[in-house]
Amino acid sequence: MNSTTRSASPARPWYREPWPWILMGLPGTVVVAGFITFYLAAHNTDGLVVDDYYKEGLAINRTLRRQEAARKLGLSGALAVEGGGVSLVLKANDAYVLPNQLRLRVAHPTIAGQDQVVSLVRAEGVFRGVMHPLEAGHWQFLVEDEAQTWRIAVSAKMPAAAPLTLVPGA
Length: 170
Description:
Elements: H1 2-5, H2 18-43, H3 53-72, E1 76-82, E2 85-91, E3 101-107, E4 116-123, E5 126-130, E6 137-145, E7 151-158, E8 164-166
Antiparallel strand pairs: 1-2, 1-8, 2-5, 3-4, 3-6, 4-5, 6-7
């Protein structure tokens, strides 16, 4: 009686059922995600890690001395970044003669590939230079002379509505 009341439908093969695919798909997704993670880790460097942290720590003392030198020279100024250009109006004590050329380092806090070094040349009392336009976000600006005897640093969010005020040790 049981055999006559049962439907005569043939059993479906396992690959036509949804549950085996669902159960195999979850670990398969994890394996694929693992390969993607490995690829990203192998092909992207971590810009925040410094190889020789001890030397970097010693360099902080030199940086502080250079900022102190800028303060003693009475250096202050205003830095304006407009598109692909930058202009700097810099003032100093009467005893210090400003050089004709300065160096501006523009650094992104986390992405070293976006850092720039711009040569600023003085013309009519204003230092000017050409640089790649900056993306929106936080940036660090370091102005220094070619001999690296003094340095002024400022951090700002770009785009800035007004020129950045440069004061040593701020």
